[in-house]
Design a protein that fits this description.
single chain, 839 residues, alpha+beta, six-stranded antiparallel sheet, five-stranded antiparallel sheet
Length: 839
């Protein structure tokens, strides 16, 4: 196949150029003309007619107002009816509009008699029942019918051209009835005027189109000259690149596993999977002899059959693999493609997945349990029961909902604790009002014969926290709340948490964490909320951290002082993903000076052990060294207070870029009170004299993170290392997280989770509900896309990251992202405005 491809002669460059350059340009211009004349011009015609119709409707309304004004004088007794009508005729008769001042109004009545026509006075007072236009249309009878049927409307007919009795043209009129006098007032536009305006518009479009055509022709001529030169050079270079192209083509076609291309017993190319596994760069690998990388262990069967071998990584680590080879020839050089598969990891992954599948299958009895076997609470009240009495009944029954009954005894509504929060507490509603004012109706019901998983699905589809369970006759048996149903979803996670608590080594914890991607994928496919998924992941990481601390204390001995192991960044916000690294710190109690050095040595050893084990388990070390093993971030409480004091006092935008992460902190394990004290200290110093300057500089550092949106609204890409440019999902969500953080700090909120912060800002009136909804939806879209992408990578055996190829996004995904970025730009503009005033 190689020889046959090498024998192919290049096609003439002009053919390639015509197909790839001229054809798209010509098609684009043709499409431009089609859009202009098939879409835009018809739309403009329609808009012109609609504008003219609106104009005559407004003008007729003005004339009608004159009649109404004189009628008011008649009602007050200032004028009698005859005088008022005479004055009206006089005013309307002289009213003119239009470029030449010849467009007019006329008046007829509901008996189809002419009251006044400025250009046809011979019709005044005459019956118009038999009057018709040259086409036979009885236009005044039509006016009367329109007014009697609907009060006003449009009619099309033939009529004389303004004051020229010899010229008859199409006309469109608007008529409106004046009921007090039984009159009809109207005016019209000549469709000849409309056609003339449209013709003028078409001429202008043709002129513009011809101008654009000329410009495109000049541009195409220039492109042709430049492009033909480039095509000549490209085809000249093609022969020299043929061997390289064959090498990459064979590499792609050969396998999707780790791949090594060997020519004359020397490595010449490896794919990214193998380079990552071995730890070499591409330039380092090609300098090594093959035996330095791969050592055959056993062989058998044909050359293409798998054989066991050992591969040696750059760090000296040796692993067992399955090796397959395929002979190739590049030019006149013989070689082979080696496919490398990790046998041990593959077996271990399959065993882990099989055990996990068995665990998930053990959940089926719980998920398929009948609702009848679930505890139901039945609390009910009448429609006129005061809100405070209904709330008291819920409290006594320890129920999160109460049913509202009609006088017949039938349950027709429900009030939940969420209703009390949102419709009573949040709005300041009087609690003496009847409960019917805040109840939700109609009820969403489910039969007691249904299964728990059906209830879970219904709650998920309808976004509900409560379902009314009914018997065969439709009577309410009680209320099923989401907590009971949630056990179905949490059962497997609870088993993993139990495994973590009993783990005897970091290796066992690594095995437990390996199940996490399976849970994430299953939760996402079942439609779980993003917030629930990230918090389950955080619960697992917190449990792993707690167990590692216990194992470290067993080795090092009891700690010399109380301490708090603090989560920072995404873990503190309970927003971890499958591609996460460590961000943590350690706060310990202040001790006497003579014990200070020994205490820090202990906690640094503790931090080093735990951070190293976390890396082993699957949480990468922080590239910026923001970890508890770093002496700077392993300090007593007093030193941490000083850190925050110095940060606020000497804030400048560049410094705050590096410490932004410290404004999201949460006690993951240990003394929670240390974090409470530190947060209170931060609020005290923010309330001091440097508050405005600090928030100004924090806003400036925050605004350095913008949504990845280009000048024309396109999605901007990044190049992660040697990989092709891709969309950075993490960079897209940072501006939203920063927005919530700075306002939460300003308001003194203790919440760290982004959605929790946004909810507090809404509840405190800092965000209107619509703005809250837009931000929450943007966060959910970006996090869901991020988690789905990472779960898909894991499913393909690729290490999860935050970079997604635009080709993986649908057109709908891209449209949603552009809308999200536009919304974020609006909110960042608000942030810039709000905090610019604090300077």
């Amino acid at each position: 196949m190689i020889a046959s491809r090498a024998a192919l002669s290049p096609r003439p460059y002009w053919h390639h150029f015509a197909v790839n350059i001229f054809s798209p340009a010509i098609l684009t211009f043709a499409l431009f003309l089609v859009v202009i004349f098939a879409v835009i011009l018809p739309t403009m015609r329609k808009n012109i007619v609609e504008r003219k119709k609106e104009m005559i409707r407004e003008l007729t309304q003005a004339a009608w107002s004159e009649l109404a004004s004189l009628h008011e004088q008649e009602k007050r007794g200032t004028l009698n009816r005859a005088a008022a009508q005479a004055a009206a005729v006089g005013r309307i008769k002289v009213m003119r509009y239009g470029d030449d001042g010849k467009d007019y109004f006329w008046i007829s009545d509901t008996e189809t008699r002419m009251v006044m026509h400025p250009y046809r006075p011979e019709l005044d007072g005459q019956s118009l029942l038999e009057y018709s236009d040259p086409a036979g249309k009885k236009l005044f009878v039509e006016y009367t019918r329109i007014v009697r049927a609907q009060g006003d409307g449009y009619a099309e007919y033939l009529w004389q051209w303004k004051d020229d009795e010899l010229r008859v043209v199409p006309k469109l009129s608007y008529v409106k009835g004046f009921a007090p006098w039984g009159w009809i007032v109207g005016t019209g536009i000549y469709l000849e005027d409309v056609r003339a305006e449209i013709s003028q518009m078409i001429r202008r479009v043709w002129q513009v189109s011809l101008g654009i055509s000329a410009a495109i022709a000049v541009l195409l001529t220039y492109i042709a000259k430049q492009g033909l030169d480039l095509e000549r050079r490209r085809w000249t270079a093609e022969t020299a690149l043929r061997d390289s192209e064959e090498k990459y083509r064979l590499l792609v076609e050969g396998t999707t596993e780790g791949v090594l291309l060997v020519l004359q017993d020397r490595p010449v190319y490896a794919n990214r999977t193998l380079l990552d596994r071995l730890g070499y760069t591409a330039s380092e690998l090609v300098e090594l002899p093959l035996e330095r990388i791969i050592e055959a262990v056993a062989a058998g069967g044909p050359a293409a059959a798998a054989q066991r071998a050992r591969v040696t990584a750059k760090n000296g680590e040796v692993s067992e693999v399955l090796l397959t080879s395929a002979a190739v020839t590049i030019g006149d050089r013989p070689g082979q493609i080696l496919t490398v598969k990790e046998a041990a990891a593959r077996r271990k992954s399959e065993e882990t997945f099989a055990r996990l599948l068995a665990d998930l299958q053990s959940m089926l009895p719980l998920a398929t349990r009948s609702i009848k076997s679930s505890p139901l609470v039945l609390v009910a009240c009448e429609l006129d029961t005061p809100i405070h009495q209904a709330a008291a009944a819920m409290s006594r029954a320890k129920s999160s909902a109460i049913l509202v009954r009609a006088p017949s005894g039938e349950a027709i509504g429900i009030v939940t604790d969420q209703d009390l929060r949102n419709r009573v507490l949040a709005t300041g509603r009087n609690v003496a009002q009847p409960v019917s004012a805040i109840m939700s109706a109609p009820l969403v019901q489910i039969s007691d014969r249904a299964l728990l998983f059906e209830a879970a699905r219904l709650m998920q589809e309808r976004n509900l926290q409560h379902l009314v369970v009914t018997d065969e006759r439709g009577g309410a048996l009680g209320v099923l709340n989401a907590t009971e149903v949630l056990h179905v979803q949490r059962h497997a996670v609870a088993m993993v948490l139990s495994e973590i608590q009993g783990a005897a080594s970091p290796g066992e914890l690594r095995d437990s964490r390996a199940k996490l991607p399976v849970f994430v994928k299953a939760l996402l496919e079942s439609g779980a909320r993003v917030e629930s998924v990230t918090r389950i992941m955080t619960a697992v990481s917190d449990a792993i951290l707690g167990r590692l601390l216990a194992l470290a204390e067993t080795e090092l001995g009891p700690p010399p002082a109380a301490y708090a192991f603090v989560a920072l960044g995404s873990e503190a916000r309970e927003e971890q993903t499958l591609a996460t690294d460590q961000d943590n710190a350690l706060i310990y109690a202040d001790v006497p000076a003579e014990r200070s050095e020994a205490t820090q040595v202990y906690f640094l050893q503790l931090g080093e052990k735990v951070c190293g084990w976390l890396d082993l388990v699957g949480y990468r070390r922080c590239k910026g060294e923001v970890m508890a093993c770093n002496p700077k971030w392993c300090q007593p409480l007093s030193r941490w207070r000083q850190y925050f004091t110095d940060c606020v006092a000497a804030a400048n935008p560049q410094d705050l870029l590096d410490v932004n992460i410290f404004f999201d902190f949460r006690c993951a394990q240990g003394e929670t009170d240390y974090v409470v004290q530190l947060r209170a200290h931060l609020q005290r110093i923010l309330a001091g004299g440097g508050r405005n300057t600090f928030f100004f500089h924090l806003a400036q550092s925050t605004l350095q993170f913008r949504a990845p949106r280009g000048f024309f609204g396109n999605i901007q890409l990044e190049s992660p290392g040697e990989r092709p440019a891709a969309f950075n999902l993490k960079a897209a969500i940072i501006p939203l997280v920063n927005f919530a953080r700075i306002y939460a700090l300003q308001q003194g909120f203790a919440e760290t989770n982004t959605l929790d912060r946004l909810r507090r800002l809404r509840d405190q009136g800092q965000l209107v509900p619509s703005s809250h909804d837009e931000l929450a939806q943007a966060y959910t879209v970006l996090m869901l896309m991020r988690l789905t992408h990472q779960a898909a990578q894991w499913n393909r055996g690729v290490a999860p990251d935050n970079f997604i190829d635009l080709q993986e996004l649908t057109q709908l995904d891209r449209s949603v992202l552009k809308k999200v970025f536009a919304d974020l730009a609006v909110f960042q503009a608000r942030l810039e405005t709000d905090f610019a005033r604090t300077a």
